Amino acid sequence: MRYWKDCWGVNSMYYARVFITLKKSIADPQGNAIKEALLSMKYDGVEDVRMGKLIELKLENPTREEAEENLKDMCEKLLANTVIEDYSYEILEV
Amino acid sequence: MKFGVVVFPGSNCDIDCYHALRDVMGQPTEYIWHKDRDLSGFDCIVLPGGFSYGDYLRCGAIARFSPVMDKVIEFADRGKPVIGICNGFQILTEAGLLPGTLLRNQNMKFICETISVKVENANTPFTNLCEEGQVLNIPIAHGDGNYFVDDSTLEEMQVNGQIVFRYCGPDGQVIEGRNPNGSLKNIAGVCNKKRNVLGMMPHPERCMERILNNEDGVIIFKSIINYLEGGGIDG
Amino acid sequence: MDKDLYRKVGLTCDEYEKIKGILGREPNELEINLYGVMWSEHCSYKNSKPVLRMFPTSGERVLQGPGENAGIVDIGDNMAVVMKIESHNHPSAVEPYQGAATGVGGIIRDIFTMGARPIASLNSLRFGELDNSRTKYLFEHVVAGIAGYGNCIGIPTVGGEVYFNDCYKGNPLVNAMCVGIIEHKDIKRGTAAGAGNAVMIVGASTGRDGMGGASFASTELTQESQENRSAVQVGDPFMEKLLLEACLELFQTGCVVGVQDLGAAGLTSACSETASRGNSGMDIDVSLVPRREAGMIPVEVMISESQERMLVIVEKGREDEVTAIFEKWGLHSSVIGRVTDDGMLTIRDKGVIVGQVPAKSLADQAPVYHREYREPGYIEERKTLDLNSIPIPENMNEILMQLLGSPNIASKEWVYRQYDHMVRTCTAVTPGSDAAVIRIRGTRKAIALTTDCNSRYCYLNPGVGGAIAIAEAARNLVCSGARPLAVTDGLNFGNPEKPEIFWQFRQSVSGMSDACRALGTPVISGNVSFYNETETDAVFPTPIVGMVGLVEDVDHITTQAFRDEGDVVLMLGVNKGEIGGSEYLKVIHGMERGAVPELDLQTEKKVQECCLEGIRKGYVKSAHDCSEGGLAVALAECCISGNIGAVVSCGDGLRKDALLFGESQSRIIITTSPDDLARVEELARKTGVDCLNMGHVGGSTLEVAINGHKEIDLPVKDMEIQWREALKCIME
User: pTM to 2 decimals?
Assistant: First the structure.
């Protein structure tokens, strides 16, 4: 990374949003409690509620590909625990 | 006079409050199920600590919509005393009975320890037997006790004497180093304008007996009884 | 059927043949899976059973020994204590927060399944050294997970232990213990009896989570198990709180015949074990089990380990009472079958039989293996310790400060500050003293609780190490003013198929058994966790002892804190200057070797009796056992807790480092007022215990002189900061 930056001196800013959710097969106590509350408040037709996390990041990288690669790595290593969580993300250039 | 301790699904200090009022203070006390809508006959309502609905969405956010809460709001509107402890405090802010909100502790961790609080206003139904400036040692146990309110409301609260307790050192000094959770101005407990609704993060019901090595909480409940017996407050 | 299916579910060829013999036919795929989970070590104890028979498990106070969801011990007045410890090591290694949380949830369910109200939790945690971010991450999140579950459900976490050693680096140990209180008449058991009675599942719905947790827990951790995604679940303490309250309310109706929580192997174990205990059968239909996910096949329903579920056997015709109570608490309950008298576990799917095996064959007829055992080579090699090669440090103040700041000795406040240890307002002695003490409301009684195990001793000498774990736990309780009553054990070892590991296991259990007999503390429940290994190494043998004691009168409650200026400091027992296997040797000299301290069980018993008698007579104002860090650390802890200094002296022919930091057993530091000194000395003489007058409490420094030369001279404040801040500094 350093190498590219030094060579080209052109890094772009990216704005990324990472969504972390529990894997489909994992029970979601929080979502469930919210669902029950909504139903008891007579919001009929609430079929399912799943709760997750939204993480917003600002990234400085030479290319979008590199930003994405980095982001993926962050998701795998830290942001999500892939034992119980799935992640998805979107990247926007700013 | 009769006390009512509300039981929400997930309340877990209900038994402790009940024990403190009935066994230690010798007061008639009953549990109130969160689906009950009849508060007649009660002179003081206690919203106990715990994790109502798991606190899964936001602390107190779901409990606030329990059927009993409409009646608690009415009860408070009639000027009768309502005390919310810990999760009860969070429910009261969600219900709009108290200003402000409780955020995650600054260190992002649950904190359980005995801590000093200073009585800032001894002229309430809950503190009328305290001295102003008195330091009480009371346990806290919460993950979301970081009190926050906007500047203009804070100013108003200060003018109205709505700040009832602040975290302090053993000598009563209100300093940042003695702020366990990041609360604005070290605020540990607040009341409404009419002063009949109190929310506090510390748990007075946890320090009522010699065997627990601390009896500082007794004065809070004694004050309520004193108030209900007509030993009123000024103005 | 896939010919190798039996292998995939963890069965051997012989075991498969045995199953064919039992059934008189080939098992189908569902049935083979049932045997796979039930005959795993985790569920069947097939490797450990013969060894576990060494434990004394009965006694006049034992109301329920091993074999149920939890053990029960009488505390008089028709009251009893229910307790158990259980490991959740492997899930915690891959998902520390949820792994630890569900461990706590599981053990709490074991307690209220017996009909008891859970009143306190403890836990014993072991991690690698805190010198890398992965270990810190595991430690931080395990603690947060225990806090998250225990705090939410409202059961105080009152004690336990945390140790750091690199043997746990790849395989941390997370053992959770829970204790409940019950009236004798309310005791429930996991028994299904009475043909026609309803089998109901209550609580959470069933999903694919935790699928195969049982066989998962029996495989050595490898790179693949890091990827083993579905075996860890998310705990729901809120659901469990509701389940707890609903169950306790339900039990009061008298319509419950038996009850069992759904833990390892889910419905399979709950159904087969309850039926087996009741000498009956069970006919259930998996299509009646409430599901969280679509498309689950019968085997998935049968072995799912979804949390917060219970199996309740209800008197025929009273099912509606159950439904009404669970509805009040916002929980589901469904009748999924009936008790039968044919001894078979019959499984249907929409009425069609999809599996049928004898219930007893799953629960009780797993093969039993007498594993080979052999003393590991390291034992002899590690025994030797050339004292002459260990330089005696110049400055003992520095050494003491270093020990006070080492993570194994330093205050665990960073940990227990995150646990609600006061909820239920019964915690008379909060974490940080020798044992936690919980009062029993409505009586003058209290119970004292502790967990203990020095696994370095167990590594160097599993037999003596195991005995010391029992002795120390009992000593901790005695120091709190309690008479030790009973043990729950969490036995954590490596792969039992390795003869060296099995030797460690046998030796440990044997040593523990001797100590249990000598001290009158039978084992009433427990858990075995094998395969605590990574590719490189096994953990130290870690037989964790959870122990409960009875404080007859709350006035006897005693802590380690020095109390009043002028009190006399005495030591019951003898300084032998043993530094083999000590924390001092490890921290200061980087060695884990040498002969572990001797333990003479008769001496131990006398020391404990003398201390307890002194407490009960009101002579003893504080009591603290000498353990890791030896005499000097114990004195420092007494001073710090009491916020007061002491001036003591001792001396004989021992090396000064061995005297100050050696970890000889059967020693208790007590204080007494000068007025009672003669009485205490007389009591010690009568019980045949050495009692050394060391000095007095007072001032604001700890001064220790050896042979008239002041070796330790430290302000209590300085020691306190070092001791209290160390762990926090490392973690923040």
Answer: 0.94
